[in-house]
Amino acid sequence: MTEPNAAPTEMDGPTAVSPRASLRDENERRVVYLMVFRLVLITLVLGATLLLWAFTKADISGVSSLSVFAIIGLTYLLTVFYGLALRRGADPERLGGLQLHADLAITTLLVHMTGGVQSAYTFFFPLSIIAAATLRFRKGAITAAIAGAVLFTSVSLLGWSGLLPMPNASGVDPTQLGVLTMARALGLNLAAIIGVAFLAVNLGAQLQRTVASLASEREAAADLYTLHEDIVRCLSSGLITVDERDRVLTINAAACELLQVTPAQAIGRAIDRIAPGLGDKLSGLPARDSLRRGDMVTTVAGDKLVLGITVSPLRDNQDRVIGRVLNFSDLTDLRKMEKQVKHAERLAAIGTLAAGVAHEIRNPLASISGSIELLSTAPDQDNRPLMEIITREIDRLNQMITDLLDYTNPGPRELVEFDYAAMVCETAAVFQRDPAFAGVDIDIDNGSATSGLRLLGDPGKLRQVVWNLLRNAGEAALSGSGTVHVRITEENGSAVVEVRDDGPGMDEDQTSQVFDPFFTTKQGGSGLGLATSHNIITEHGGEIRAHSEGRGKGARFIVRIPVERTGSFAEWRRSEVVPAYTGRRDE
User: Are strands 321-330 and 416-419 parallel, antiparallel or unpaired?
Assistant: First the structure.
């Protein structure tokens, strides 16, 4: 767990150190400690002896100053050698064993030079045993104890018997000792070595158990760390931890991708800098409280995102709250889909109701229309204008009911292959000649889209869509410059038709409702033209969108339909009998 003031790290940072590498590091530390301890001890002991000899002019150690300097120098040289070998990658365990052997050899030499069994430096043997216990545990302590006892006994007996000559500068002659004195001194020192060896064996056993337990714990921690890294890395949702001041501590790859930042850009910065609005949401939530799946809207690279956020307290190993854990996912498409589903459900309910009402209205309309026709043949001419008005309104109402029935119960599609761009241009040309829109100019930009832009669909229904869009744009353009712009392109495998006017435009609420049935901004409009067009485009696997910058800035309608190329159409046609669309069809 990251402490509040600790340096932040990434979730996708360095991996955990392996247990084998950790064991090597531990062995290396023990070897270094042994080197430092040996260096300090030999400097203090022999340095103190040298100082006493210099001030008192008494050779209390029984060895010349030259020998002391030689031993100190040898110890320093060996320490430098050990350090260089360790730095160059020598195995710490083998290097530790080499040091133990060298220590026993130097201790044996020093004891012999200072009087053998009478030496004041025999305590170096027990220290070597303790050092062996720390490096090689119980086995090392036993081996060092046996080697130390054998070496001390050998050098003492050989020196006492005169078989191993003493240095010329030594002032101590072990050959002058009696048997009893010799045996007592040898026994006391061996007893000290054996006693220290017994304690060192227990120490080594405990150290061995501790190291084994530590290695097991490290291995478990490494496995847990790796599992944690794998889980965080595989999360499809964003995961961020922040401190008490809402500064980012860690961030996973999914969060970086979603918020379009890099770990270096996010870590250490305020959460509100990378996800605007999130800081305000956190500020209103107490530090110990949680938030389950709360929605918020933020802006990333100019796009609005709907994030579903879960917030939990971030605690350390003492259960203190040191920040928060934020888990979030992108719900933008889901919320949009939910909105579309609700819209579709509402339209379905309206359509069912409208279909029933339309059927019920059409029957009495037929009776009224027939009766009016009979009355119109009567010789009374005074009521004829009224009858003509009634007949006209009945026809208008019947057409509205027909449109309503077409919307609620569209007929089956007649799938043919046709040139979509040519059909749009042809419909625009027919619209241009409509007397009702004599003051409207059509500006068509088709580029190269007229060549090979073929669709597999119902040309009659798609013509109806284009006609509805042109009619709405023409009516809006009459209050503007009088020009309707039509653009035909192909983008990412879809045929795109854009119809734009510079009329009064729409506000955001009107844009969101423009495809709802019975919604209209025109006086006398039925509100079914765009709703029917939406259904037709949806049946063809496409989409139709309305855009407007606001009131007085015109409107744009964009239709996208997947393109079926001639090759793919030919393969499909081999298994289905499909008539080819060769020209204009007025349906």
Answer: unpaired
